[in-house]
Protein 1
Amino acid sequence: MELRCVDCATAYPPVLLYRCKACGGILETVGDDGTERVSLGESVTPLLRAHRIEAALPGFSGEIWLKDETRNPSGSFKDRLVASAMGRALALGVRKVVCASSGNAGAATAAYAARAGIPAVIIVPAHTPLGKVTQIAAYGALLLLVEGHYSRSYDLALALAERHGFANLTTTFINPYAVAGLTAVGTELVAQLGGAPSHVLVPTGSGPLVKGVWQGIADAGATTRLIAVQAQGCAPIVQAFDFGAEEVAAWGMPQTIASGISDPLIGYERDGAYTLKLVRRSGGRAISVSDDELRAAMQRLARSEGVYAEPTGASPIAALPRLLAAGDLPPGSRVVCMVTGHGFKDGKIYQEMPVRTHEVDDPGDVAAVAELCERALAQA
Ligand SMILES: [Zn+2]
């Protein structure tokens, strides 16, 4: 295995290196060195047909599938990146790791560091959802809270890695061994569907999952249209797509309930440009959704399919009506929605939604309770 720059193709030995020394470009791994992963028993995640979501899309004739990444050991697809990068860090003799995260990658890094028996420093924005912060702390990691947007946490993790000997497990494009762990998503999709999907909708911050899906499907000799989904309150890649630009400009003030994709890309705009290039090359597009659309999609996913996702994980479902209206989902489409993170991680958003709860005054009066149930169910 070696590292190679995606822009200038300069090759490097497989050490801990985060950017091309020649041009500052993104590095990718080429070939497999058989490094043993750190494992928490992760395996292939379920691919579920979403019949009721299909039926709720008037005019759609095709298949909608949910790739349920909430079922990874720490509850998000980030486990795939961390299992891969942690194994490589250990093989290189590093015994401490750092990760800048909006929450899920931090939880994954903390979990796999505990499993490996090494210390982890996790850096998150101070406003990170409590469920994610609680999970990171529970695994025993040292948690650092940084005021402001995610890119500030990113800068600090990179500085600790470059100056103080930490392996940087931040899951943007910065760690090529982490990104390599996502190729399996594309490979699994082809195996589970018996062929490539026509479209894969990917919640997108900087975009490593876009790359993973693309690479895995390309390795299987197939293609798919990649749809990068962002939140309207933080949509640097969508903005560049809509302008027809090749460069991606950083996003000034992220404002969205989708914490997992709230990444303004400040200082690593090239990550966004690379993702945009892959999206365009695939014949796909970038699209953004509002927070209200995210909430509605979370409810639909939970109530009509039994899948409990955080706002970011529901963003592909939120994008479906817009894509259909734009003519991007022709008849016969086989669409995969990447459900990237668990609802447990951000319960507050669900807690703010109206729920069907009733007080039972007298549990002994079963007839009255039965009547209440009939009445309430009839209204549903
Ligand atoms: Zn380069």
Note: The radius of gyration is 21 Å.
Protein 2
Amino acid sequence: MFGALAKTYYADKINIKAENMVVVSIMPCTAKKFECNRSEMRDSGFKDVDFVLTTRELAMMIKQAGIEFDKLEDESYDSILGESTGAAVIFGTTGGVMEAALRTAYEIITGNEVPFTNLNIKPVRGMDGVKEASIKIKNTKPEWSFLEGVELNVAVAHGLSNAKQLMEAISSGKTNYHFVEVMGCPGGCIGGGGQPIPTSAEIRKRRAEAIYAEDMGKTIRKSHENPEVAEVYKEYLTHPLGHKSHELLHTHYKVRKRY
Ligand code: SF4
């Protein structure tokens, strides 16, 4: 997604031809090395992401270069798209994508913050294999009045066996979820195959706690309040779910043969 924006919006902004750009993503995920080569990942008209390094590889490179990371002075990320939010930070743990989406969706539909203390949607947090939550939508804006009183049902799974369990429940027709989040790794990306080793249930729990602490410390904790995201929509994508954002930010995968 970012690669597609980098080679379109950002390339225009900094006046560089997309074909002369090299985009490197730092990821928690070994699977992204494969994914960036998929034919579906060329929404910019070029390979959206040229290379993927895992967080573990980046850490090794930093050590090999003799950089004492903890002694570096903090500084801001480069603009544009350098502003981060608490919602972005929690993407790394199971339930985080769901929580970030609910914070934004509820507020867009009602004009009010999601009705959980400090925006912390605790029912979708934690390391249970499959989590469920229901949120009643109340006091909608006029244009969303058809959602008034709807009980929004969501589910979250992490790890492949839990994902299978959730998918089988959905296939059976006995569930009534409106939105599900599935992360392949135990604990979500904090337990990703490219993350520093070793990992364990305790380490993943502590990584999740660190992520939620970081979220609480952020001035901006909702994606739609990120001024740089708003600027991208205003200047380039026009509006969420518009044609351009659909083309660049959404992916449809083709079925591949099994090995
Ligand atoms: S959950 Fe695992 S497989 Fe999915 S993106 Fe994160 S690290 Fe990759």
Note: Residues 86-222 form a domain with the Fe-only Hydrogenase (Larger Subunit); Chain L, domain 3 fold (CATH 3.40.950.10).
